[in-house]
Amino acid sequence: MKTEFVPLAINGRTRTFDDDESRFLEKADCGGQGRIDIITASGKFVARGELQVGNPRTHLASLERALKAWAALPESERKPGAIQVPERGPFDPRRNAAKGPPKGTLIVRVYNRQLERTSKGEYRHTMPADYIPALRDPKVVGSDQATALWTQPANDYLWITQAEARAMMPKDAKPGERIEVPASLCQRIFRFHLDPSRGLSENNNFGHVTAAAGKLQLTVEAVGGAEVRLRLDGYANLHNPRSGLKTYLSPGIKEHSKNLRIPLDYDPRLLGYLAYHPAKKVLSRLDIVALGEVRGRPNGENILAERVGDANPLGIAFELVTDPRPADFLPPRAARDEAAARPDVNLVERYLGLTKK
User: Which percentage of the chain shows pLDDT scores above 70?
Assistant: First the structure.
């Protein structure tokens, strides 16, 4: 992959915008639908890579076939420098790539991690045996290694506006002083960043909840000339009735699921620590952990990552990005480019609570 290809992850939704990059992808019929396309620099289709959960051998074989198809192309397609790729023009202004985070926005990495307990009750990472038998059956999922994907953390990003950050940094902080986390930030975290399905599906299970679904509060722990330290405590009670599943369950769920509970609930406690420079008003630390039990399948529409038992622990960690890399400017899952189909909707503004659309 590293020596014979130029790997590129593409948000397939960009194909519906109007700029050079989007038109190239649309013409090449490339990107989206969770697939791998192998194309030339000119956009000529070569082959389609095969993905099979937990079975890299199938993927490797498809890449080898793609190399043979590449070798059969005319030299005019393969010769170095034969295809002159022009400079990319400006992005469609509706795209997140054109907007990016608003000025002063803080970027926080978010990691969802499915957990289980040892015989002593201590938390541990999940293992294959923690998942329902169907997810370890090659006849159902094509491999006996599929669960390896779900033992890893799922990543996302949280954006905090400049106004929200400043509201959590009082000028004359005193030890023991309590500060309410802004309601807009509470709502964003509850709606989009405590979701058991993150990394497993396109769902936003709790997109309907408000800041009243929980509480986040800061307490000043220590005050110094160069740093003020805060402790965050809180909780959330998140519920999705998933009423649509009362009238339809997929055949796969009916046949293989061990948990036909329809609603989804997650009731985590949150603990964290923040620090900032009182004069510069710069947040230098934000580390938060949410931990609680998930009741119900994380994905209502399928059995992906379904575990054994009625309730299973889920941990979610939040970490401030102090030196962003290019990849850290990816938009949060809840602010992606679905707006291509609805040009009247700005998902970045909606995610940040700046609009009701």
Answer: 94
